[in-house]
Amino acid sequence: MKLERLEPVKTSLGATNHPYMTGAWTPQWEEVTALDLDVIEGAIPTDIDGVYLRNTENPLHQPLGRYHPFDGDGMLHQIDIKDGKADYRNRFIRTRGFVAEQIAEGALWGGIQDGPGTSKRPGFGAHEGLKDSSSTDVVIHNGKAVSTFYQCGEAYMLDPETMEQLGVASWVPLDGVSAHPKTDERTGEMLFFNYSKHAPYMHYGVI
């Protein structure tokens, strides 16, 4: 196996006994690319050619208030299987919120369990009173991984094979997109909706 470690991200989170930051919930901060994984038992079928993606939340900074696992920054884990071999990659999703807190080297937003006024950024919903961590859902559409957030954040796109960050999808409305858009496997169309504080308060779209 060949292992490449990426440049470390900044974290301000110290020692904790929080139940959602310990044990199976212990944050994973290291980003790696591991090529040609060792097969411990059996063999990888040679007729499998595809990518498995899984999304998780990983808190990087000391919370401003209470912490809920939905508040952690989104990270995608990937296993790429081809020709009887498997590679692994994991990447934080570089949302605007992630980048802003990396620059600040600390938390700027409160979480889902916090009251108004906890966040250092005013307002309601993603990118205002709550950080868009793009950690809720990931789907494939038109050959790209689309990562979304339950509070109608921006849809972030990545290359599902290389995990290259491709930024915000160009079709995202001003008020964002709810998590769990669905792709029609027959037509290739992806269906989404959102909800917002602006009229008409909900948008429905087909991409």
Radius of gyration: 18 Å
Overall domain count: 1
Shape field: globular
Main sheet: strands, sense, barrel: 5 strands, antiparallel
Number of H/I helices: 1
Binned, the helix content reads under 10%
Biggest sheet: strands side by side, in what order?
1-2-5-4-3
- Please count the beta strands (DSSP E, at least 2 residues each): 12
Query: Structural class per helix/strand content?
Result: mainly beta
Through-space gap between termini: 39 Å
* Parts with pLDDT < 50 across at least 5 consecutive residues: none
Order of helices and strands: EEEEEHEEEEEEE
How much is the average pLDDT?
Answer: 94
Beta-strand level of the residues, as a percent range? 25-35%
Describe the 3D structure:
With 207 residues, this protein is mainly beta. The chain has one domain (2-206). 4% of the residues lie in helices and 31% in strands. The chain has one helix at residues 96-104, and strands at 2-5, 32-35, 50-58, 73-82, 85-92, 137-141, 144-148, 156-158, 165-168, 182-183, 190-195, 202-206. It has a 5-stranded antiparallel sheet with strand order 1-2-5-4-3, with no helix packed on it. Strands 6-7-8-9 form a 4-stranded antiparallel sheet, with no helix packed on it. A hairpin with a 6-residue loop joins strand 11 (190-195) and strand 12. It is globular. The chain starts with a strand and ends with a strand. The model has no long low-confidence stretch (mean pLDDT 94).
